[in-house]
Specification:
The complex is a heterotetramer of chains A (654), B (347), C (230) and D (163). By secondary structure, chain C is an all-alpha fold. Chain C is built from twelve helices and one strand. The chains are: A alpha/beta (654), B alpha/beta (347), C mainly alpha (230), D alpha/beta (163).
């Protein structure tokens, strides 16, 4: 056996704390190691060339690269050795950067640890065998979860490229949060004017299927071959008949909360979120409908010209096949009422969230764009904005910056002057102003100078009512003074939460997410829209808070990644899967019981006996069966048990 | 189990009305208490402003004494509660620190006593339901706001209060007692506390603001569970008026006084006369009003019932004539039950 | 022009980490503490400015401030800090440090605390009238006394006050507790200040001795560099 | 211009930096050696995240990467102890987050047994730990490793390899 060891400096990332030259020399003392060298950047062109040369010249049959994490460059180097004619699975990576040089500062200590990590990798390399991957057919349909601007953008891009796309949206209409916004920063162009045409495109595109008022029930399968159960929620209205004429909504006698309008005013029990809804279809909120709660009424049924009302309608489960999945579940506005008692927990009428103010400003909102005090309907003379409500606040477990509040507050401040009049007093309490987009800083400057909005650097600690006003108690940290402002209207720059149910969805998709429910990208820089589950991609706020331009950009990026994936007719499957050595199989079928993917099957042999057999294209290579098999007759290719035992011995030998 | 009771210096003397009313209320609620033998001052604010070990040791001494009675200690004064709780938590968490404290004490504290504030104890060990079930006097016409002050809730990690900005314990207890509890956003703003002596102007401004907010919220009295808050709002209300040019005359009641009244104790039982701003008139009229309203409602209910009975009778008549008489008979009693039902509606 | 003193900053920071389990470096100057503070209008230094001063090592200024003496420990700042800093805890600790160092603090807070504790140490429980008397004597400020004298009437008539305080059982132990822990505190502060002095002397010597070399900012070299910039 | 004197600060910085360093160089007798077995998707990636974030850790841990904790045979832990490991740390995806949907559930059952088995073999339970660390929990990984290593250090190196 002829093993080659390549130790990477990674500039000073590794060489700064590990004596790379030293361990490269020591590596030559290891059994079977016939070549060892240290290279400035193994992943760079010269580095890869050096590896390929060594393979050819020294007839290497195993390669160990000791550099960064395999999550970073395993693929790179597999390709590299493959080009040099070595089976890519005869390659092993030793992670001496993330797991060594970056977490230790003491040179001797780090060097010793790196040395042992390399020894372990060499030990494992000795046990490696060449592996050959299979190919599977690829289903070219794409599932987009979430019909906000991210989902819409990704869907349209992919549909235009000829892929069949299904959008699943939990509300009755697509459009998401952007559909609720009045204007968009920094250009102050109308949100609806940009979005609604795109929504219509989605509904009319031959390659796009809309499944609104639906949710993901179950996901199984793997890249190229996902099977998804989708729950179509009962709208109690037959959408094949409904024409969206809104007569039922006008006639319905029962009030119900209006989520679309951020609960400013009630809607009806049977509702259509907004006039430009796509699809424009009615649905009944059963827990507010008189028929469902009191057993009388049925007015909608009587007035419906299309006879579309169906009180017997039930949820139905639709099963579809997809080759790739795009997650675009977006956000929910931070529910500040549950966290900020000092701001009145929502009990003070004239203290509202940023989104509520958006709806108030919006001409198609519940007030036709009339900015006023909810307590008495008067125009506000003094309006105060408070930033970082539910952002950068560890006391409510939201340490992150929501990224959009600074800008939408500046926008709303400007619109306040625009709607109510330039003589309105507008204050913005801020900690830092984050305006790092194209034209953003200039926009904030205009708001401060041209529109005379007064920015106060400091946080507000208390809101309370005092003869008809909302008293705002804060500090001006630049003056080192407390300030109190008698406001008519207070708007909280409420931050961003991951969409409700995001964690549960991530679990169904087997992708990672952080403690706040934002989903984890494959790599922050190199694989920003992929996830660690092949075939599942991310777009928009579900990955992290971001504004509309960033969301749309990411959505298009995601679309192109999916197109890249589905451009192939067949996909190579990982050969690192389980195989049964049937001569020792005792047919206990434990493997069949434990396998999450039902990869093992009973196979009839010539002698009529039944033995376990793993279907290669179905096995995902988790190895649960391997650890479960009572007679140790299942092996996991790429992770042979002997390799693991040898690694353990190698560590403890010294 | 007997509850160890730590009155503390203020209740012991200047706030006797709090002490007495707490004891009486607990008695009515069937909670058996025993005063901590040979208790001494908890150290209050000054001690922990001078030295940490001093503060914790003074408190620990009382925990040690309380252990002679039992493992649950009630400290109605939030300042004492805060000090004792503080010591409890730190000492029980670290044996090293316990040792450090015991070095300073004459006899070591080896127990595990848990300290409770009054609202906390009532919520956890008595419950709103039981209080509501024992209510005798109708306080529905007594408009109050509960004022928690600083030390009942803050810091949440210590007191276990889930929402330190909008605590609800006192609200719930007062509602259980049948009082008309108003919502306000000033429950936990500071009244000035002990700074009332060295720096009176702070306290006057702060306390004044609290009274103003209470009135704005539509309350006629403020309910407190803290002798210091009481001194600042009640005893010093005159000074506040002088300093701020106001003419407030707002009774400041102790939680235990209101509960006591609701549970049927007399004004004298809960020492209403001890309060400097006299609450007797307000309380008296509130109770009378409630009684009057009840009478009025009963009358209305009776009328309504009578009318219905009559109507029913008529209906029966018209329904089954000529032989109507027997039909009318069952109709009347059928209507009758509405009357007592109406009465039930009044708590 | 102020002088940043990372040395004393680090020293105080470590101490606060130990005693209050809170790190002043967490402060990002939102000013919520100052906005929350009910007593801030009497402060000479705003709470958020105190945090800043601690970050850059202006420790003496903080220890001599009125603010730490006028803090009423309502804990609102701690409750609302978005970085979960125990601001009130820091104020409390600084106050005890100042007391332990026997600093001559402004305002009557010290007088009040001592009047209070002496009374408690003597009687075991707090004899309010006696304490008030001692306090106002301590302040040497008859006007203040007169201000509250009015209260005596209702207090006496309402039986809220005992003229002649009685000693309670356990008073002796309280006295001993007071004595012992204050001695400990004084000793602790002495040790701390001496250690600090030694440290600074050592650093100064190192700064002179070592030549300006060494990459990883070994104390001496950076000290030299700063002298260049200075 | 403010004059800056930050020698103490930088001193403190480097000093607090590597607990591992102090342990390795400081201790006269053999420093403890710990074998870690982690799943590829959550805990190995979590350790990567810790590295990228430069979350300093003691240097006593050597990691073995497997696709899933479900692949881990408790005997691996016994083997490690038999070969003289002073501690064994096993970590995977949080329940519900398994990349293979349920591998870590099977693993959990095994480890619960293994824990007892190892205890019966006379190895103090502080030397064996299994836990969950997700790919985004770099800080948590640092804490898990630091706490476990500190715990094992308290017990010191194991005398003799035999179980």
């Amino acid at each position: 056996m002829r093993i080659g060891v390549f130790v990477c400096h990674c500039g000073s990332n590794i060489a700064g704390t590990v004596d790379v030259a030293g361990i490269a020399k020591r590596a030559l003392t290891l059994k079977d190691v016939v070549h060892a060298e240290n290279i400035m950047y193994t992943c760079a062109e010269p580095g890869q060339a050096a590896i390929q040369n060594a393979i050819k010249e020294k007839k290497l049959d195993r390669v160990v690269v000791s550099a960064c994490s395999p999550h970073m460059h395993e693929v790179t180097f597999r390709r590299c050795v493959d080009k040099a004619g070595l089976n890519p699975y005869l390659f092993e990576m030793a992670n001496i950067r993330e797991h060594c040089s970056w977490i230790h500062t003491d040179m001797p200590v780090a060097t010793e640890k790196a040395w042992e990590i390399i020894k372990m990798s060499v030990a494992k390399a000795r046990q490696l065998e060449p592996l050959y991957s299979n190919e599977v057919e690829v289903n070219k349909d794409v599932l987009v979860i979430g019909g906000g601007v991210a989902g819409i953008q990704a869907a349209l891009d992919m549909a235009d490229a000829g892929l069949k796309v299904t959008i699943v949206e939990k509300e009755t209409t697509i459009g998401g949060v952007m559909a609720k916004l009045d204007k968009t920063f920094p250009t102050i162009d109308c949100s609806a004017c940009i979005l609604t045409p795109r929504m219509v495109d989605c509904s009319q595109h031959e390659n796009i299927t809309l499944m609104t008022y639906s949710e993901i029930e179950k996901v199984s399968g793997y890249v190229g071959n996902f099977t998804v159960d989708i729950r179509k929620k009962a709208a109690m209205v037959d959408w094949t008949k409904c024409i969206g004429c809104e007569i039922c909504v006008q006639k319905c006698p029962a009030k119900a909360p209006d989520a679309f309008n951020a609960f400013l005013e009630p809607t009806k029990a049977i509702y259509i979120p907004f006039p430009q809804a796509v699809p424009k279809r009615a649905a009944i909120q059963v827990d507010h409908c008189r028929w469902f709660t009191q057993g009388k009424c049925r007015v909608c049924e009587r007035v419906c010209p299309a006879d579309a009302i169906d009180f017997e309608q039930k949820d139905e489960i639709v099963t579809k096949e997809f080759g790739a999945i795009v997650v675009a579940t977006g956000l929910e506005v931070f529910p500040w009422e549950d966290y900020y008692g000092e701001y009145g927990s929502g009990k003070i009428k004239d203290v509202i969230s940023g989104l509520q103010y958006e709806r108030m400003l919006n001409a198609s909102g519940p007030y036709g764009g009339h900015v006023h005090r909810l307590s008495n309907g008067e125009d506000p003379k003094t309006v105060v904005f408070i930033q970082c409500v539910g952002s950068r606040d560890e006391s409510v477990n939201r340490p992150y910056c929501s990224g959009v509040c600074c800008m939408y507050t500046a926008k709303q401040a400007l619109l306040t002057k625009d709607h109510v009049g330039m003589d309105t007093e507008v204050y913005v309490f801020y900690i830092d102003i984050r305006a790092n987009g194209k034209g953003y800083e200039e926009f904030v400057k205009r708001v401060q100078t041209e529109f005379g909005v007064k920015y106060v650097r400091g946080r507000v600690s208390k809101l309370y009512e005092d003869n008809g006003k909302v008293m705002v108690r804060g500090t001006d940290t630049l003056l080192g003074e407390q300030v109190e402002i008698a406001a008519d209207l207070v708007v909280l720059a409420t931050g961003i939460n991951a969409a409700p149910g995001a964690k549960e969805l991530a679990q169904k998709l087997n992708i990672s997410y952080d403690e706040f429910g934002f989903m984890k990208e494959g790599h922050p820089k190199l694989r920003p829209v992929e996830t660690n589950t092949a075939g599942v991609f991310l777009a928009g706020v579900c990955q992290a808070p971001k504004d509309i331009p960033a969301t749309v950009a990411q959505a298009s990026g995601t679309a192109s990644k999916v197109m890249g994936l589905l451009a192939k007719d067949k996909l190579k499957t990982s050969p690192m899967i389980a195989v049964v050595d049937q001569k020792n199989c005792v047919s206990c079928w434990k493997c069949i019981e434990v396998c999450p993917f039902s990869a093992p099957e009973k196979q009839e042999l010539r002698d009529g006996t039944q033995k376990s057999h793993v279907i290669e294209t179905v096995c995902q290579g988790c190895g649960v069966c391997v650890a479960t098999c009572p007679v140790n007759t299942i092996a996991l290719k790429g992770f042979p048990t002997d390799a693991i035992l040898d690694q353990i011995e190698e560590v403890l030998q010294s | 189990m007997t509850l160890a009771y730590y009155p503390g210096c203020s209740l012991h003397k200047s706030s006797a009305e709090y002490d007495v009313s707490v004891r009486k209320v607990l008695d009515v609620l069937g909670v058996e208490i025993k005063e901590v033998p040979e208790w001494t001052c908890c150290g209050s604010t000054p001690a922990h402003m001078m030295d940490h070990l001093l503060a914790q040791s003074l408190a620990a001494r009382n925990l040690r004494q309380a252990a002679l009675v039992g493992d649950e200690l009630l400290a109605p004064c939030p300042s004492c509660y805060q000090r004792e709780k503080n010591a409890e938590v730190e000492i029980h968490a670290s044996d090293a620190f316990r040792a450090e404290v015991n070095e300073v004490l004459d006899k070591p504290y080896t127990g595990r006593v848990t300290v409770w504030s009054l609202p906390e104890y009532l919520m956890k060990f008595v419950g709103e339901a039981k209080i509501a079930s024992l209510v005798k006097a109708d306080l529905s016409q007594l408009k109050v706001v509960p004022y928690y002050g600083c030390l009942l809730g803050r810091p949440g990690e210590l007191t276990g209060e889930k929402d330190i900005e909008q605590p609800m314990m006192m609200d719930l207890l007062l509602q259980a007692a049948g009082a008309d509890v108003k919502w306000w956003n000033y429950k936990t703003e500071c009244c000035g506390a002990s700074v009332g002596m060295p720096k009176a102007e702070i306290q006057r401004v702060l306390s004044g603001k609290i009274i103003e907010q209470a009135l704005a919220a539509g309350a006629e009295a403020i309910v407190v569970a803290c002798p210091l808050c009481h001194v600042n709002l009640d005893l010093k209300q005159g000074q506040i008026n002088k300093a701020l040019g106001t003419d407030y005359n707002v009774p400041i009641l102790y939680l235990s006084q209101v509960l006591g009244l609701a549970l049927g104790l007399s004004g004298d039982d809960v020492l209403l006369r001890q309060n400097v701003v006299d609450p007797t008139v307000l309380v008296g009229t509130a109770i009378q009003k409630a009684a009057a309203i009840r009478v009025e409602e009963e009358r209305k209910a009776a009328e309504k019932a009578a009318k219905e009975a009559a109507k029913a009778a008529k209906a029966a008549e018209t329904a089954a004539k000529p032989a109507a008489e027997p039909a009318a008979a069952p109709a009347a009693p059928a209507a009758a039950p509405t009357k007592p039902a109406a009465e039930e509606a009044q708590p | 022009m102020i002088r940043y003193d990372a040395q004393s900053a680090a020293r105080t920071r470590d101490r606060l980490l130990k005693e209050v389990e809170t790190d002043v470096r967490d402060c990002y100057q939102c000013g919520n503490c100052s906005a929350s503070c009910p007593a801030a209008f009497t402060f000479d230094i705003m709470p958020n400015q105190m945090m800043r001063m601690l970050q850059v090592g202006m420790v003496d200024k903080v220890l001599d401030s009125k603010s730490i003496q006028l803090c009423i420990q309502c804990l609102t700042c701690t409750g609302r800090c978005p970085r979960n800093i125990d601001v009130a805890g820091i104020f409390e600790d600084l106050k005890t440090i100042a007391a332990g160092q026997g600093r001559d603090v402004p305002e009557h807070a010290k007088t009040f605390n001592e009047a209070f504790m002496n009374a408690v140490a003597r009687f075991g429980r707090l004899p309010e009238l006696y304490m008030m008397g001692m306090f106002y004597l301590g302040t040497m400020n008859p006007k203040m006394a007169m201000g509250d004298a009015g209260l005596a009437v209702p207090m006496l008539t309402k039986g809220k006050m005992a003229i002649v305080p009685r000693r309670s059982k356990g008073a002796d132990e309280v006295g001993r507790i007071y004595k012992k822990s204050i001695e400990k505190a004084k000793a602790r502060e002495k040790a701390f200040t001496e250690a600090a002095a030694r440290e600074e002397a050592a650093a100064a010597r190192a700064a002179k001795a070592a030549p300006a070399a060494g990459a990883h900012g070994a104390g001496a070299s950076t000290a030299d560099e700063t002298e260049v910039t200075a | 211009m403010a004059e800056v004197n930050n020698n103490q600060a930088s001193g403190a910085a480097t000093q607090g930096a590597a607990p591992g360093a102090g342990a390795a160089t400081g201790a006269p007798d053999r420093d403890v050696k710990i074998v870690g077995i982690v799943c590829n998707w959550c805990s190995y990636a979590g350790a990567d995240t810790a590295g990228v974030g430069r979350f300093k850790q003691p240097a006593n841990l050597r990691l073995i990467r497997l696709p899933c904790t479900g692949r881990i045979d408790p005997l691996f832990a016994l083997k490690a102890f038999e070969k003289g490991a002073d501690g064994v740390l096993i970590s995977g995806c949080h329940p519900g987050d398994c990349h293979y949907s349920e591998g870590n559930y099977y693993a959990r059952r095994k480890f619960e047994l293994a824990e007892r088995m190892i205890h019966h073999l006379g190895i103090p339970k502080e030397r064996f730990k299994w836990t969950w660390v997700s790919a985004s929990e770099g800080a948590r990984w640092q804490k898990v490793v630091t706490d476990f290593v500190e715990g094992v250090k308290k017990l010191g190196p194991r005398e003799g390899k035999a179980l």
